[in-house]
Amino acid sequence: MQYYIKTFGCQMNVYDSQRIADILQNMGYQAAQTPIEADLIIFNTCHIREKAAEKLFSDLGRINLIKEERKQQGKETIIGVVGCVVQAEDEEITKRVPYINFATGPLTYYRLPEILQKIARHKNLCVIDTDFPAESKFDFLPENHSHGVCSFLAVQEGCNNFCTYCIVPYTRGVETSRPVEDVLKEAQRLVKTGTLEINLLGQNVNSYHGEDAYGKERDFAYLLRRLAEIDGLKRLRYTTSYPADVTDDLISCHKEIDILMPYLHLPLQSGSDKILKAMNRRHTAGRYLEIIDKLRTAKPDLGFSSDFIVGFPGETDDDFEQTLNMIDKVGYIQSFSFKYSRRAGTPAAVFPNQIPEKIKTQRLNILQEKLFSMQLTFNKNCIGKIMPVLFESKGRKKEQMFGRTPYMQNIHVQAPIDTLNQILPIKITDATQNSLSGIIVKQ
Ligand code: SAH
Ligand code: SF4
Ligand code: F3S
After folding, report:
1. Bond before 361 cis per omega within 30 degrees
2. How distant is the alpha carbon of residue 203 from its chain centre?
3. 168 lines ligand 1 (CB under 6 A)
4. Domain 386-440 is found in CATH 2.60.40.10
5. 36-48: average pLDDT
6. What's the 49 CA to ligand 3 centre distance in angstroms?
7. Average per-residue pLDDT in the chain?
8. I need a labelling partner for 222 at 20 to 30 A (CA). Which of 9, 113, 322, 368 fits?
């Protein structure tokens, strides 16, 4: 039996898809290269913006054609949908895609073995599971398999922040943190099976408050320090952090922990205090700048990235101008920016003064022009420098390897295949907005 998983959305979904693969491999399934070969096709979905959800439904339509094609060859196909769209749409999802066999939310996919058994017994059944279970899915997932030299590790899930635009608290539920020892064990297993870089994940990762072996609650800075002790772990990252939850102790970690990479994703969303308040963000622009200053004092070479939303209800030209000013003040080396998208069930969806699409597009273009040119400047300034690069896969061209710098920049280097999974010093020779090129420095 073969499976194929298509993943939409954030890194947490990438992690969940890997855990689904762990479950399936333990059941004897093997990974298929294309959906046509697969007996089981799973879509792991994202509900964050309307565009993401719409794309899902058009892709699912194509998968149904594959199911039909396989049927003509006498092969059965099970189609399942997992993730945030399922949690948000619940039973409604079967109205749009009646041909699916099961749908589970992001917190219940650990029940996949039972669900597949149920479907095997009752062929025409569509199993829907959108519980918010009392138990933690992590207690039921099998030991993680190796997922390469760079691995994600979820330490916290859910969110209590309720930003007024955001669907995540409704799809991933309230914040929960995994116990310290569970995280350490998973990290140790990853390192033993070849991982050199771990990226810790959580919707609000720095509000982590897991229990240690003695039942004492520990914070994110504690967790980072414990992880940094793991022998053989070379790089540590975390995402996504919430500005108001950056503690002084976490700031010290950036100074003290040498494997903590000098790159931090710290979403600002907007530079206007009026809009931040309407978004229910617990930080002002001023407070955000203070945190950035402290972080820069602790670690002067830290590079920042952020998420931005333009066209939030009530955003005036002046509010937007303040976002542009903040970008100039902070200076980002990378960023992600979006037009505000109304999500049913969130408070902002019914706010007055929704912004016309045309203005959102204009503002996004202006914002991105600024952000992209900053990113290009940062990349160009790297030319001539020597940076440690972790090679994580083969490049598209012959004898080319793909890797990442400490700043998460993509880099392509002419290098032999045996450099895979190694960290090597690379001299940067060229740069575009999205990637660097370089040559190996002879040691
Ligand atoms: N927990 C993270 C990531 C949440 S989703 C955080 O707080 O930063 C990733 C990004 O999507 C958000 O940071 C936000 O910029 C964007 N986003 C979320 N909801 C959105 C919406 N309704 N419309 C447009 N962008 C949205
Ligand atoms: Fe959404 Fe805000 Fe929570 Fe991030 S912090 S997941 S944007 S509610
Ligand atoms: Fe999307 Fe859910 Fe992640 S809505 S961004 S997959 S938490």
Report:
1. no
2. 9
3. yes
4. no
5. 95
6. 9
7. 95
8. 9
